Amino acid sequence: MCLICVEFQKQKMTIKEARRALGEMIVGLEGEHVEEIEKMLKAAEEESE
Known about the structure:
- This protein has 49 residues and is an all-alpha fold.
- The protein has one domain (3-48).
- It is built from 3 helices and no strands.
- It has helices at 3-9, 15-25, 31-48.
- Helix 1 runs antiparallel to helix 2 and helix 2 runs antiparallel to helix 3 (31-48).
- The model has no long low-confidence stretch (mean pLDDT 96).
């Protein structure tokens, strides 16, 4: 797990903060993990609506 996943799942990071962090860290992450993060954030956004 990456820092984004850990902090977001602990609810120490908002969706907006997680998206910003993903934008900053995307270069260092594997493509498959980026997809997992995006799915997690999209599900959280849909749930919050």
